[in-house]
Design brief:
alpha/beta, 9 helices
């Protein structure tokens, strides 16, 4: 299967190229704190010489409880993110929850992201595809990896082949997720870049009653396993103090851990790429 590459500024997502990272806090808690975190992350990835896309969410529309913090107004967020990405010179990924948001968000975003719960919503997929932006689709917790073929067809039918596919765990009984590593190999066969979301994959949805829990101690072990498969990217959420995060704290990495984690994953990815290019080993 020919592998497609998706270029986002200087970052190239390809299952045959070095890993690209998508990282950021779960939600924009305030423009001040988010900007400070973005500056720190850019410095970390620059020092490592590693491609990086800044993850941004202005609205967490699928919070467990209606009383939970959701984010800041869309227009406020987009004006802020446009200025921030220009100042930092970094590409930005932004979640889209409704078809009506797609065109406006695409004026700022380099990648539009389809949340996992909405991955089968045809009108949302069409609206995002029609912008011409790259579209990252989170595989729903309820989907088999081969079911992503129908989602790909929906986006391709609009003339857009700038597609990224993200694994983020599968429902495994109540309030739990499990990662089937076979899924990423299966999705690679569609020919599009595959990304592993190591932090959402360790969520425990709704486990805290009015919010989602998680086992962040498993995030990096799973990321190591995914990197060994030779995929295109790793997605993770990070926060300076996860215990105080407004959303997804239990499964967010500590911001200060990023350099060591990325360095480790880059080393695994480099070895995986070397082995993948060994003709004798490819036949095993």
């Amino acid at each position: 299967m020919t592998q497609t590459s998706v270029k986002i500024k200087t970052a190239v997502f390809s299952n045959n190229a070095p890993i690209v990272y998508i990282a950021g806090p779960c939600v924009i808690e305030s423009v001040k704190t988010y900007a400070a975190q973005a500056v720190k992350m850019k410095g970390m990835f620059e020092k490592l010489g590693t491609s990086f896309v800044l993850k941004a969410s202005f609205d967490k529309a699928n919070r467990t409880s209606h009383s939970s913090f959701r984010g800041i107004p869309m227009e406020t967020a987009l004006d802020f993110l446009k200025d921030l990405k220009n100042r930092l010179d970094v590409p930005v990924l932004i979640d889209v929850h409704e078809p009506s948001q797609a065109a406006r968000v695409a004026e700022v975003a380099d990648i539009l992201q389809i949340p996992a719960f909405l991955c089968r919503q045809t009108d949302l997929l069409f609206a995002c595809a029609d912008t011409g932006c790259a579209v990252n689709v989170k595989k729903g917790q309820f989907l088999a990896p081969w079911d992503m073929g129908n989602i790909i067809s929906k986006i391709e039918s609009r003339g857009n082949k700038r597609i990224l596919l993200t694994e983020r765990g599968s429902s495994f009984g109540y309030n739990n997720l499990v990662v089937d590593m076979r899924g990423m190999e299966i999705m690679k066969n569609f020919g599009y870049p595959v990304i592993f979301d190591c932090t959402h994959s360790v969520q425990k949805p709704g486990a805290l009653g009015k919010s989602t829990g998680g086992d962040v101690k498993f995030a990096l072990p799973l990321a190591r396993a995914a990197a060994a498969l030779k995929i295109a990217g790793i997605f993770f959420e990070a926060h300076p103090d996860p215990a105080k995060a407004f959303s997804d704290g239990p499964n967010s990495l500590q911001l200060r851990r990023i350099p060591d984690a990325v360095d480790m994953l880059n080393q695994i990815d480099g070895l995986a790429m070397k082995l993948a290019n060994n003709k004798a080993l490819r036949s095993l």
